[in-house]
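[audit] Reproducing an earlier prediction to check determinism. Same input, same settings, fresh worker. If the C-alpha cells differ from the archived copy the diff job will pick it up downstream; this log only records the rerun itself.
[audit] input (377 residues):
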Amino acid sequence: MAKSGIRRDSKHRVLRRGESIRWDGKYQFKYHVNGKAHFVYSWRLEPTDKLPAGKKPCVSLRELEKKIGYDLDSQMHPEERSMTVEELVERYLSTRIGVKPNTKANYNFVKNLMKKEDFNYKKIGDVKTSDAKLFLIKLQQDGKRYSTVKTVRGVLRPAFQMAVDDVLHKNPFGFELAGVVVNDSVTREALTRDQMRKFLKFVHDDNVYCKYYEVVYILFHTGMRISEFCGLTIKDIDLENRIVNIDHQLQRLSDMTLVIEPTKTSAGTRKLPITEDVVKCFQAIIEDREKPKVEKVVDGYTGFLFLDEKGLPLVAMHWEHRFNHMVKRYNDIYRVQMPNITPHVCRHTYCSNMAKSGMNPKTLQYLMGHSDIGGYA
C-alpha cells in the first residue's frame, strides 16, 4: 500500500472505496443496506482480467459493483433478486386471499407441477425473457396441454409482475403466449341448427336417454352454464312469470365437497326470461322429481332439481358423462356422425343462434351472463 493511503492491487491498479483483496487473492467489495454489511467477491477486478488458473468463471468485481449500484439507486435490495421462482410464487399466492376453491385448487396444481421443474429453483434475477419462453415451450414438449401451459403462465406472469414492482426491472413473462407455444386445444364449435334439431329428436325418441330430453332442450335454449343449471333450486324457477333466477352455481371440490359459489362473474347474476317450451320442460322436471326423505342442504340452498341415489345434487361432471354417452350412442346408430357435444357446446350453440337471429349484442351479453360482449365462457 502506498504511503499516501491509496490502496493498489498487484497490478498497481487503484482500489476504490469498499474494494479490498482477501488473503487468498480474491477481490471483495463491501456495501451496506439499511446499516447491514454485505459482500460480493470475484477473482477478477475488471472484465478484461484473465481468470486465475483452476478458478471457476465469474463476473468481475467492477461489474458486480455496477449492478449493485444500479439496484441500490433503484431502491432494490440486491439479495431479494436472488429469491427463487418457487419463493416468488409462494409470496405472490400469499397475497391472493379470498379466492374461490377452484382457483385455489389451480394454484396448488401449478405449485405441484413446478416442483418437478428446474426452472422452479432459478433465481428470479437470472430469469430472462428467453428463459421464460423456453420454459413454457419445454412444458408443451413434455406433453403438457396448451391449457396447462396457459394456467402455469397465468400464475408466473402476475408473480413476476409483483417482483417488477418490488425488485425487478422487467417482467420476463410479459409476452403474448401466441407464437411461443402451439394452441392445440380443441375449439368448441357451435352446432348448426340442423345438428341441434337432429340431436334433440334422437334424445327425445331414444328409450334410454329420453329422460334427459328436458335438460338437453333447456341447455340448448337458455345458454346457462352447466354449474348454474346444477345449482338451480325449485325456488329459482318462476313458471308463472317465465323467469329463472340465476345468482349462484354449484361446484364440487377435489375432496368431493359440494359448495355454492357466486356466479362466474358479477354479470352472471341475472333474471333469465324463458320461452313457453322451456317452461314446459322445467314443469316436467319438477313434476317428475322424487322428493327425498331428507332434502340435502348445501350452504343454505335446498330443493335442487336433480339428485343422485344418495340424495346429493348432480354436478357438472354427471351431465358431461351423460352427454358423452348420448353422443356415442347417436354415432353408433347414424352414418353421419355428430361432433362432440357437451353442456358448454349447448351454451355456445345458443349464443351463436341468438347472434345469427339478430339479437341486440347488449341483450345477448346480459342473457349469457358475460362480463364483456366478446366472450362466451
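[audit] rerun output stored. Observation attached for the diff report: Residues 146-166 form the longest helix (21 residues).
[audit] end
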